[in-house]
Write a sequence for this structure.
């Protein structure tokens, strides 16, 4: 009897010991950044201060923060610490932007986000710690956006908000602007009528009623024999994916549109030009949408109209360009941030994406902010436009965008002032973990290596 008991006791002791050691390993030691200039965004900069991080959150920040003995300390002497940049709109994080399928409100970008995409690597290298991943602009109703951290092994590790907004575009993917608007109204009208039916206690249409348990999903029509299926239907529009006609997909799409019409979730509206802005404002008024305006370069012509909304807009990556007057043939320099500031329209920036650069500077948020400063914006406003303002615009400012006690420890350690061309990101920290170190960046080392004669 004693031997079995001894074995049982030894097993229990070993198990408890393993659990204790595992628990100890799981709890990360606090992290402190000491002696750096701190730009919290809210409040004045701290010339020489300390940030204490515990369990992925900012625990303390200030001049006289007491650092616990078990903390790992990063020497920030001569460095600048600020919040990580927030990307309010991008499509580069997906394996495909899903722009061939025009009316797919039931789709989610979560199913297409690639954690090892080059976009995320570039984000960490260049200081972007949170990003809204949104369907592309060449669509009609492109599906659901999501907001993620830019580091993580799996999508679920990165996810901040799954259904972060529905994407619609007023740039014709096929046909013209008149047909684009007509088709968009048709889909929004379906949602509006469904809401009205619900209010009266009526049942939804059979075609859009959610599939009952055990009920088989109708099979998509078979492809014609001989050759591949054409990519466009009889009207010239792109064919939808097979599941676009499924009852379950239709029901899910209708629910997404109903949320948009009820104002329960935002709608990213891409406007290519000023005329699109006018149409977008009409749609917002007509259907009660909660818009996030994503603007093309020539939307500056509608700045006065957007000023009446008093909402933060997302500018195109082309902030400064030349335009020829079609009547006088005179060239005029267009300075987009200056025009929007004069109209008193708050704005945030957008980059071209690291995979499709037409110019080097417009791929970086610090450059976009520095360009706005060059044309009259204060440095404080410009820094806010790449941190706290986009976080507010996409609804995550309770977590990120500024350095405050209780917020996620998403921050950057810079070699100098944020908007200086000679400044590098020394380290990127997301939720208290160092996810990028320039000293270990082999690509940068190869780029800066001296060329042998």
């Amino acid at each position: 009897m004693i031997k079995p008991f001894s074995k049982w006791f030894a097993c229990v002791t070993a198990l408890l010991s393993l659990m204790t050691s595992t628990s100890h390993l799981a709890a990360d030691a606090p992290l402190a950044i000491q002696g750096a200039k701190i730009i919290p965004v809210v409040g004045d900069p701290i010339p020489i201060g300390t940030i204490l991080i515990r369990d992925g959150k900012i625990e303390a920040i200030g001049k006289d923060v007491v650092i616990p003995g078990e903390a790992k300390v990063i020497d920030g002497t001569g460095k600048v610490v600020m919040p990580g940049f927030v990307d309010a709109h991008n499509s580069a994080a997906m394996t495909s932007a899903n722009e061939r399928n025009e009316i797919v409100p039931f789709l989610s970008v979560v199913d297409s986000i690639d954690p090892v995409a080059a976009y995320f690597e570039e984000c960490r290298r260049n200081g972007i710690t949170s990003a809204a991943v949104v369907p592309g602009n060449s669509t009609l109703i492109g599906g659901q956006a999501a907001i993620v951290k830019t580091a993580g092994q799996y999508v679920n590790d990165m996810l901040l908000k799954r259904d972060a907004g529905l994407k619609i575009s007023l740039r014709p993917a096929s046909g013209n602007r008149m047909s684009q608007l007509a088709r968009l109204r048709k889909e929004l009208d379906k949602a509006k009528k469904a809401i009205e039916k619900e209010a009266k206690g009526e049942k939804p249409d059979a075609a859009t009623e959610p599939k009952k348990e055990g009920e088989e999903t109708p099979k998509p029509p078979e492809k014609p024999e001989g050759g591949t299926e054409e990519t466009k239907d009889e009207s010239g529009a792109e064919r939808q994916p097979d599941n676009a006609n499924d009852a379950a997909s239709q029901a899910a799409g209708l629910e997404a549109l109903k949320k948009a019409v009820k104002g329960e979730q935002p709608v990213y509206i891409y406007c290519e030009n000023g005329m699109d802005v006018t149409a977008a404002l009409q749609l917002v008024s007509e259907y009660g949408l909660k818009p996030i305006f994503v603007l093309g370069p020539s939307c500056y012509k509608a700045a006065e109209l957007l000023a009446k909304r008093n909402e933060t807009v997302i500018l195109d990556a082309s902030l400064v360009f030349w335009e020829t007057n079609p009547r006088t043939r005179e060239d005029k320099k267009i300075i987009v941030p200056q025009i929007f500031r004069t109209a008193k329209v708050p704005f945030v920036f957008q980059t071209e994406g690291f995979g499709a650069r037409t110019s080097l500077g417009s791929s970086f948020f610090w450059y976009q902010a520095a360009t706005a400063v060059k044309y009259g914006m204060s440095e404080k406003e410009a820094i806010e436009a790449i941190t706290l303002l986009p976080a507010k615009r996409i609804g995550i400012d309770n977590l990120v965008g500024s350095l405050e006690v209780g917020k996620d420890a998403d921050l950057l350690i810079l070699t100098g002032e944020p908007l200086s061309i000679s400044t590098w990101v020394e380290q990127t920290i997301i939720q208290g973990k160092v996810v990028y170190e320039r000293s270990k960046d082999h690509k940068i080392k190869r780029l800066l290596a001296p060329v042998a004669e």
Q: What stands out?
A: Residues 17-26, 210-239 have pLDDT under 50 and may be disordered.
